[in-house]
Amino acid sequence: MMSYELAQAPKASFANIRSSRTFVISTVAVAVFVDLFLYSLIIPILPTLLTDRANVSASKLQITLSGLLATFHASVVICAPITGYLADRWSNRKYFLLGGLCALAGATVLFMVSRNLGLLYFARMLQGASASIVWAVGLALLVDVIGPKDIGVAMGWVSLGLSLGNTLGPVLGGIVYNRAGQYAAFTMGFATIAVDFVMRCLLRETNRSQVGSVLEEAQVQQESSHGSTESGASGEKPNEAAEVTIQINDPQPSLEHQQANQCRPGLFSIFTLLKYPDMLSSLWSVFLMTVILTGLEAVSKSKENILIRLGP
């Protein structure tokens, strides 16, 4: 019996690590990093891929780059509300995260081997779908596990992953591509996917199921207390059950909880959120940031075109 308990102790502790706040934050931050890293890794390589392998002429290079960029963001716009809606009705969000990573890996394979412009557009669509899953499902998972009180700290780590991915992607992609070729650059991307895959597989989401079990336990205790006529120690159970129920069900007076209580669950609940000024200001800030960043990416040129325009 003693040996069995000792054998089970490491497993229990490892399970706690997999469902801990630190591991959940790390997994979401790494997922965001990999998403932005692979998105920006392709930027210094894409002009050469289009001209040398997809046979895009120099006169059509600019509009093709802009079209690929628009395809990515159009995929995000279409997929984000759908994945968010479905993830709220799925028992475990880990499977959505794994599906998004598979889409990202498939997009990277297409970028590495494709010689067809249509497949490159399809690869950008897969990248957009993967990004929508990371941002919609990953952040929802953070809110479930971390809660509104400490979500700011968690988002700080996620923003760190975002910044590192945007910074290291084009820098390392350009350096490795210049010195070792495109296959070496894509191999570096697959290495980050492998690390992300391991972390997403190890993730253990238990928050929502734990809350449901606590509510059921409290309800059973309340029903048993109403039917019982004994006093003494058994009389303390109704109070404990009531306290548990109040702690879970009593809405906090914060703004996000007031908005959540006023929004009915459903695919179109986003339209109810749009009447709040803080939601509108957040959307406007994200819109401006995206316009500035993607506007610069849309005017990227290959090195040969830049040299031709500048002259000797």
Secondary-structure blueprint of this entry?
Blueprint: H1 2-18, H2 21-41, H3 46-53, H4 58-87, H5 94-113, H6 117-146, H7 151-180, H8 182-202, H9 207-226, H10 236-249, H11 255-262, H12 270-273, H13 277-297, H14 303-310
Please describe what this structure looks like.
It is a single chain. The longest helix is centred in the N-terminal third of the chain and has 30 residues, at 58-87. The chain folds into 2 domains: 20-205 and 280-310, Up-down Bundle (Growth Hormone, Chain: A); 209-273, no CATH class. The protein is mainly alpha-helical. It has 14 helices and no strands. The chain has helices at residues 2-18, 21-41, 46-53, 58-87, 94-113, 117-146, 151-180, 182-202, 207-226, 236-249, 255-262, 270-273, 277-297, 303-310.
